[in-house]
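I have been asked to look over a protein record a colleague put together. Alongside the sequence sits a line of tokens, each denoting a local backbone shape. I have pasted the whole thing underneath without changing anything:
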Amino acid sequence: MKVAPPVVGDLAALVQLGRRCHLESRFARLPYDGERVAQRFARMIEQPLSTTFFVAARQASGELHGLMIGTIDEYFFSRERIASSIFLLVHPEHRGGLAAIKMVMAFRAWAHARAAAEMYIGVASGVSIHRTGRFLSRLGLTLNGGNYSAWLPVPPGDADSAAIR
């Protein structure tokens, strides 16, 4: 299992992995815009930022098993830095293997190299919450609360609100 930044040739596979993971997540009620995802991934690949972590996990054969995106910034209340995950996606058929372990360890090394005081990985997808929690705990992360949300109705006839979603 190799973990490395994706290349432009990975775009179709990245978009498909995103689509597959979106369908099983709590976000499935929202439309998946593959074109938007492809554009955002392409920009991240072609114009990488030192504050953005973006890796793909793949077998030696080249088969994509997962991806992870993170960012680093200062805490709101301190000049210390925190590295936060945005996505940690592993194809359902490859969960329990090395992909997630290697991506999280690469994220930890990336955060450490950028002098982060903390690494944060949230579990907001609603998929395998307890299993993911056990996995992250085994990697040395500590549960510090939970994620809470509420879906909001789109006001009738409010095209601008619908467009934002």
